[in-house]
Amino acid sequence: MDYRVIAELALEQYDIMPKSLEFLMEATNVFFRVDTADKAYVLKIFQEDSSSINDNLTEHFMIEAIREKSDVLTPMVIFNKDGQTITKITHGNERGYKRTALYEFYEGVPIDGTETMECFEKVGRSLAKMHLATENLRFPEHVNPKKWDHVFYFENEKPVYHKPKYAKYITTEMKDILDELIPYFNEKLMYFYNTLTPRLIHGNLNPWNVQKYKEDIIIYDFEEVMLAYPVMDIAIFLYYYRYNENFVFDEVLAALLRGYSEYRPIPRALDEKNLEIIMMSRRINIFNYVLSIRKDPTEFIELSFPKIKEYYLSYK
Prior knowledge:
Elements: H1 3-11, E1 20-26, E2 30-35, E3 40-45, H2 53-69, E4 77-78, E5 87-89, E6 98-104, E7 109-110, H3 117-133, E8 146-147, H4 172-195, E9 199-201, E10 210-213, E11 216-219, E12 226-228, H5 230-239, H6 249-261, H7 272-293, H8 298-315
Parallel strand pairs: 8-12
Antiparallel strand pairs: 1-2, 2-3, 3-6, 4-6, 5-6, 7-10, 9-12, 10-11
């Protein structure tokens, strides 16, 4: 598929005058940098398997709410000539059309590898402000966010570790432990929705979606926005530092919460047990995803499954 042609056709639908179009990367989605005489943008071409149009519209709704109700930096969504945030391009796509969106561009760099305690405090402040901005939002008819009430929460997502094609990677012990943990985590995740009031959260706050721009923090990639709980956003971010040998986890947690508590009370659901439940639910979700997409997931399994087993033995 010629993504460059799709990008060029999409840009015709905006009131901007591009001077250059540069391919940036293809990952979950495809990205191009667009430069005009005085501004820079990023054009995103969504992959059908990574999100739905409902996910994209929910993402844009949350970005607009955050920009309107807080000073958190996040790239603005650009409306096309029809006043829409999603531009559909039919060129060369047998599945119907490709969804595209245009965002303003910041010259930021991911915090990954350069984190400090001050950085974690800044992330905590931004998280608190985002959670305040999404409190008591009224959803328009076109916004129908997904929920994280099961370990596998994406549409049509199923566990794959029992499939014969993965038998050479997955032992009987692995299957037994996952078979016991997944229903347990499903019950715990559902419990949040039965006892607390959900709101929109980022859903995928990781060290690559948090970037530094001058002295500021920018929050990117709201594609996994969901109707869930502040404690989940906090746990998702902490997941990436739980076993990071470069940091003392308790120090990261303390710095994050110091920043968070400057603007919003620490969520009452935030305790060690709930953090571990959410972080381990994410680990199993990612475990399943990696198993299904990698040609050889051996290295990831050897790194990740011992942590799942450790949790299982500790809490059983």
